[in-house]
Specification:
- Helix content is 50%, strand content 14%.
- The chain is an alpha+beta fold and 387 residues long.
- The strands form two sheets. Strands 2-3-7-6 form a four-stranded antiparallel sheet, with no helix packed on it. A three-stranded mixed sheet has the order 1-4-5, covered by helices on one side.
- The structure holds flavin-adenine dinucleotide.
- The site of flavin-adenine dinucleotide has 23 residues, from strand 1, strand 3 and helix 10.
- Flavin-adenine dinucleotide binds next to strand 1, strand 3 and helix 10.
């Protein structure tokens, strides 16, 4: 068992940390409040190779794995810049296209994902289906060689800054007549694709959208993979990277909040010469949150290591547990940090309450804590499914 990062991973961590600190949480908040995006940070991270760490070198990436991408997600978040689109574009879209796309799709999309010049977002959630992906109602029909996509998606992140969206739809299986999932790479300016921005109570430079697909016409090669049989494995291919990287973002956010609070409580004095951090009522909740964040990091490391070793089933269990642990730890850490800062905790200046919405959402998306508990109850504890 090895808890050490490789020297290359250590260097990556230090370099990403330096980049994150160069921009910092003030930059993230400023962009969010102005309703603009963290374009400068994204582009610089792309130029430096951090967005493509998990993409093969032949497509301009770093040739690493999800361990490396998790480092990027965690360190940017630990610097106060939790970028959700890292989870969507390099983690989900690049993995799906690399593992299940055609040669042509890999050549067309991976270099742009690697250098950050292209973003591909991900659309699975639907208003009627919610957590129940078996109820997906977006349908893809054949029209000659083309595909026509019709349906609705909700809460889709980053559609306004992406060139393409990876849409999960259903097609009719010619053998059984049943609907089976298929993934399509849809240009965000495709005729028939409409979007409207959702007002969310999350302070973030990244936005969520409702998507309307009304007979969106796509060429045959928009389908991910050589045939419809690629659909289900392609969909599952994105899940472990998604859970592991979103967990890393949560752990980084937790570290950021605890660091802000610890600096403050070590120096703030309201009872004579002693800092407020001397009082265990202040220090213990922070220490408790730090333990929870560190435990989550351990699980993230395990999940990423298993995933990169190709042990997908074990990575599935560990990735879900890591996502659960990190989601809870991040929410606890930010809430505890706000409390430890007192009134300052609610100010924009101290940069902690600005993360309350994001960490709350991290217990719901991209998979809710309840659905993870269902997964663990069924697949680890052998319980019957209740739904
Ligand atoms: C900030 C943000 C960004 C997002 N970005 C994207 C994106 O880019 N792409 C995308 O496709 N989706 C995205 N989503 C959607 C997200 O994945 C869903 O919100 C999430 O999967 C939950 O689905 P739902 O909101 O429909 O909740 P519902 O399914 O309606 O569930 C509501 C509540 O009931 C609970 N529940 C439901 N079923 C069960 C059950 N069987 N047992 C126990 N509890 C249950 C849930 O856990 C939840 O607490 C995003 C959401 C947010 C908040």
């Amino acid at each position: 068992m090895n808890f050490d990062l490789t020297p290359e991973q250590d260097q990556l961590r230090d370099a990403v940390r330096a980049l994150g600190r160069k921009y910092g949480h003030g930059y993230f908040v400023e962009k969010a409040k102005a309703g603009t995006h963290t374009t400068e940070l994204w582009q610089e991270a792309g130029r430096l190779g951090y967005l493509g760490v998990n993409i093969p070198t032949e497509y301009g990436g770093g040739g690493g794995g999800i361990t490396e991408l998790a480092i990027v997600c965690e360190e940017l978040a630990a610097a106060g810049c939790p970028l959700l689109l890292l989870v969507v574009s390099p983690a989900i879209a690049a993995t799906v296209i690399n593992k299940h796309g055609t040669d042509e799709q890999r050549k067309r999309h991976l270099p742009g994902l690697a250098d950050g010049s292209q973003k591909i977002v991900f659309a699975i959630t639907e208003p009627e289906a919610g957590s129940n992906f078996h109820r997906l109602g977006t349908v893809a029909r054949r029209d000659g060689d083309d595909w026509l996509l019709t349906g609705r998606k909700c809460y889709i992140s980053g559609v306004d800054e992406a060139g393409h969206v990876l849409v999960v739809a259903r097609t009719e299986d010619s053998a059984t007549g049943k609907l089976k999932p298929a993934l399509f790479i849809v240009p965000t300016d495709a005729p028939g694709l409409g979007k409207s921005k959702l007002d969310m109570e999350i302070l973030s430079p990244e936005n969520q959208f409702l998507l309307y697909l009304d007979d969106v016409r796509l060429p045959a090669d928009a389908l991910v993979g050589e045939s419809l049989d690629a659909g289900l494995p392609a969909l599952f291919a994105g899940l472990n990277p998604e859970r592991i990287t979103v967990a890393a973002m949560g752990a980084g956010t937790g570290r950021y909040a605890i660091e802000r609070a610890s600096e403050y409580t070590a120096t703030r004095k309201v009872w004579g010469g002693r800092s407020i951090g001397t009082h265990q009522g202040v220090a213990h909740p922070l220490a408790h949150a730090a333990v929870q964040v560190e435990l989550a990091r351990l699980m993230i490391h395990k999940a990423a290591t298993l995933y990169d070793a190709g042990r997908d089933l074990e990575a599935g269990v560990a990735g879900n547990m890591a996502k659960y642990a990190a989601g809870e730890a991040a929410a606890l850490a930010v809430d505890t940090a706000v409390q430890a800062l007192g009134g300052a905790g609610m100010t924009t200046e101290y940069g902690v309450a600005t993360l309350l919405g994001a960490v709350r959402a991290g217990r719901i998306a991209p998979v809710s804590r309840e659905m993870i508990l269902n997964f663990v109850a069924q697949h680890v504890l052998g319980q019957d499914k209740s739904y």
